[in-house]
Design a protein that fits this description.
Largest sheet: 7 strands, mixed
Strand content: 5-15%
Strand order of the largest sheet: 2-8-7-6-5-3-4
Bound molecules: glutamine
Shape: globular
Helix content: 25-40%
Length: about 375
């Protein structure tokens, strides 16, 4: 048998998705892969029913159904203030996952370097490698998960083609401040690099923190490739709807990558999701309140274990420090949690470039009853 491509030996399967499969096998409460166990807003469910009877069963326009792109442009404009042209600035993708792959392949030539902050969402390194680029890492250090300016400047001195900024950040829960983002922008301008942002948690930010849209920073739009998704905002991770937003010249190229990767996102789901994009501002305030309650509930439960954990400013992840449990590796600890405690979390090492082995990432995008049940099981860690 011929050998498969060597670039595939450089990274592993997704630990997040693998943990979900193990959780399912053992009937554990799955706080590993981040997705809700509650329904999307009623408006979306009703629109989905209507869409099944409409003329939406064949390919939509490759870069996104026109009505969907128009609604998306209006929604983005409402929150960012940017004048988004649905025909010039958007490509609709299968989730932010595809958007990131498209962004990376659009920006990078083989051999280019890409800066990734560590810890990072595991897709980024794989995306870089699949597009022929080489990831270089800059640490984000606890407790605040800020970066060291000089370290970042040294990484930029290696002439990267792009930097990836996940904000609010998975898995740290960090929300980058305007000053931090301005510093990244200044370095990207100095070294003429793209800034690829991943912002699916834009509406899950806890007071007093606020989300700053990178593309809306003064002078940033031309070099920013924004990747985003409807998954988290409307609780529709299975619909696989996301987008790339960028300047027209970048979008013209990104459309080609997307076209040959997937042709397009599901037509009836684009039609149905318009109802989400048209929800009033009060929906987003409600979403923030809902996740603030969940965060407070889950952190309260974790506090009872007596183990230290990260305090998220945004997104819906917490990293629990399990050093005191005495496992040799976090992978062993994660397997034990699933089998013996009945709660699944992701081994933290899968997010780090550095040899970090003492963290388990849990998410709290679950009903209160699910979080309560998980909390009771986790009490056994005390
Ligand atoms: N972003 C989610 C997580 O980190 C999952 C996304 C995915 O699996 N595609 O768990």
């Amino acid at each position: 048998m011929p050998a498969t491509a060597s670039r595939l030996s450089v990274f592993t399967e997704s630990v997040i998705r693998g943990t979900t499969r193990l959780a399912n096998q053992h009937g554990a409460i799955n706080l590993a892969q981040g997705f809700p166990d509650f329904d999307p807003p009623e408006e979306l469910l009703a629109a989905l029913e209507r869409a099944t009877r409409g003329p939406h069963h064949q390919y939509a326009v490759t870069w996104g159904a026109p009505r969907f792109r128009e609604a998306l442009a209006r929604k983005i404009q409402r929150f960012t203030g940017l004048p988004i042209d649905p025909d010039q600035n958007l490509v609709v993708t299968c989730g932010s996952t595809e958007a990131m792959m498209v962004a990376m392949m659009t920006a990078c030539n083989p051999g280019d370097k890409v800066i990734i902050f560590s810890p990072f969402y595991e897709n980024y390194a794989a995306d870089a490698i699949l597009s022929g680029a080489e990831p270089i890492y800059v640490p984000l250090r606890p407790p605040g998960f800020g970066f060291d300016s000089e370290e970042l400047a040294r990484a930029f001195a290696q002439k990267p083609k792009a930097i990836v900024v996940c904000n609010p950040s998975n898995p740290t829960g960090k929300v980058f401040t305007r000053d931090e983002l301005m510093e990244i922008l200044r370095l990207a301008e100095e070294h003429d690099a793209f800034v690829i942002t991943d912002e699916p948690y834009e509406h899950i930010v806890f007071a007093p923190h606020e989300h700053v849209y990178f593309a809306a920073l003064p002078g940033a739009f031309e070099r920013t490739i924004t990747c985003n998704s409807l998954s988290k905002t409307y609780s529709i991770t299975g619909w696989r709807l996301g987008y790339v937003q960028a300047a027209p010249a970048v979008i013209a190229q990104a459309r080609k990558v997307h076209d040959f990767l997937t042709v397009g996102a599901a037509a009836p789901l684009q039609e149905a999701a318009i109802a989400g994009l048209e929800l009033p501002d009060s929906y987003y305030a409600g979403l923030r309140d809902l996740y603030t309650e969940k965060r407070d509930l889950f952190l309260g439960l974790l506090r009872q274990t007596g183990l230290p954990f990260t305090e998220p400013q945004g997104a819906y992840y917490v990293m629990l420090d399990i050093s005191s449990l005495g496992f040799a590796t976090d992978t062993e600890a994660s397997a034990w949690l699933i089998r013996d405690i009945g709660v699944a979390g992701v081994a933290g090492s899968s997010f780090f470039r550095e040899p970090v082995n003492h963290l388990i990432r849990f998410h709290f995008a679950k009903n209160a009853a699910t979080l309560q049940a998980a909390g009771e099981r986790l009490l056994r860690l005390h």
